[in-house]
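All the exercises in this workshop are built on plain-text protein records. Sequence and backbone structure share a record, each on its own labelled line. The structure tokens are whole numbers drawn from a learned vocabulary of backbone shapes. The record below serves as our worked example for the rest of this section.
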Amino acid sequence: MVYFSILHYILRFLIFGGNLMKFTKLTLLGAASAVALTFVAGTNLAIADGHKVKPIKMRWASDHSGPPHPAAIAEVFFAEQVEKKIPGSKVQIYWAKSLYNVPKGTQALTKGNLEMMTGQFGKTSSVEPYANTIVGAGKLTTPGAIQGLDGTKTYGQLKKVFNDKHGITLFGSGHLSMYMGAGAVKSRMLVPADFAGKKIRSMGPAENALLGSLGANATTMSFGDVPPALQTGVIDGLLTSLGGFNATKEQAPYFTVAGINGIVGDYYWFGASNKWWAKLSKGQQKALSDIIVNDFIPFQKAINFCNDKRMVDKYKVTDVSKAGIYIMNPTEAAVLQKAEGGATNTWIKTKVDAAGGKMVDQFTAEAKALVAANPMGSAALEKTDCTAFAADFAKYAKGSPLHKKKARK
């Protein structure tokens, strides 16, 4: 059991340290050294500049569901790292809007009424319209391109807006499912004619523009209302993630993906209240920043990638008449992209000023360059050894203490 724990820890160390070597290539001495170095680095977080770091008490809010949602598993991982590396600390996590939804949580961060949260750029747009400037289908269409989001000029401008206007520090972006798609009740939606006249649940206003361009009637509703709406015929289908498909596959078994980010393109952001952050000591800030940037965010992206992989491996189909996940080929996906015809960007520009409009065009160009520079198969993320996360998925299976819970207190 101890050996397994050490092996599992080493695998994580290699993945999150950017070293994708196989464990079998390590010598026994090297493996022991890796564990020792990781242990020392972790325990040293409790001491900064020769002074013991005081415990941190904080709350983290998210509107997505709890475990086994991969984003929730990552947030528990964050809490565990804080409580382990800064002894005496306590992190409470609130899922499924049990504390705040994204707009209200963003405002709570500004006021100092919340410490940290997982936001979503598209859902933040009602509070900050510029947040929409990086969303939209068919932009970041490879894992490597998505990984490059934080390095774009547009993201840097958003980070400044969040800080200067809203008093929120963005530590980085996170991944939603890369395979967002369209689920249908009776038959698969592949071409614009399949969408025409259908009542489709949208994920947000930006996606409404896409659905409108395909002739569908978009409706926005919380995910909790989706299964009964599908079952009773209130809606004919939905836009959602692979996790959403997993939750609604009995009601909407025909799930279609137009490649990576081919139907929906949106991203998480991880932010802290500046008012709260200013109350922390320098040592606390340093220790917490290290955990967020070097432990939590890499873990979040990797486990999300692996969750996508395990879902596709389990439910992928190549026959469009069969229930399951069908991934369009580039020719099929291009038909939807042509029908969209820039409708999402046009809509976003109606919600922002001239400077925001320039950001939309700027990001579209940046995304195109990122895709060209990061073709499929080139990103280190795509080489992640997903067996390293088997224990994490098993830990939150049905019957486990946090399975589908709304809070970790």
The chain has 17 helices and 14 strands. The radius of gyration is 21 Å. The first helix runs from residue 2 to 16.
